[in-house]
Protein: Glutathione S-transferase
Organism: Loktanella gaetbuli
Amino acid sequence: MTYDLFIGDRTFSSWSLRGWLMLAAFDLPYRSHMVGLYSGTMAADLADLAPARTVPVLRTPQGHVLTDSIAMAETLAEAHPQAGLYPADPGARALARSLVAEMHSGFAALRGDCPMMLAHGWQGFTPGPDVLADLARLETLWALARARHGAGGPWLFGTYSLADVFYAPAALRIATYDLPVSDAAQAYVAAHLNDPLIRQWRAMGLTQSYDPMPYAMDLPKRPWPGPAPLQARAVDQGTAENRTCPYSGDPVTHLMTMDGRTFGFCNAFCRDKTVADPAAWPKFMALV
């Protein structure tokens, strides 16, 4: 009963992030497959997944192919009613579905003027009137959901739901571009920045380098506004404290150091995602 999820580059693909969160946040079994969104291989990578032409794509355990994020969301909610993808309360569930649908079809200015960028923040970005209108609509929707149904936690409906999955990239855009929103909206943005899954997604994206970097802007860069990572670095030599990778259990082949200690991993990806943000990974931190 494992899903196959096909995603694009994590640093830039907001829809891929949504597809991954639908599975990872609700503990649904999945395998990730990378699609060459910027390497030019996307058509070939999706050739066996008709009618797919964009990411994300989800293949169900039964072999059914879903090529749109809202179709993925509704299918997963239907297949896993106990997972809590939508709120249990009928009124909350109706509002959550409405918010998901509006994000799926709207906010074109925010998307177009503020491309997804998780490598760093931008300093000095000036939003135009259409972006400001999108931000005002976000504030209205977020405040409504929080006022009616958000008493049980930091998320739009208290506990995490598909509404938070769909609005996570919007929250990250606000953080990346330092967009003007209220303190209440900033608190919701901070919940996403501190979410371990968002930190993991970003860390995995940082294992890939780009030259040139997509979506470059003529603006100064600023540090990523999320939690500052623990300092770590990859090394070629040393003796690891652990004999097996904390993620796979396979023998150690790649090394990193942190606080004068050396840890091992089964491949470069496992090591590099950990170097990018060690505290985002509970299985690694259990070693520490």
In short: Residues 193 and 226 are 5 Å apart (CA to CA). The mean pLDDT is 97. The chain has three domains: 3-83, 90-200, 229-287. Residues 229-287 form one domain.
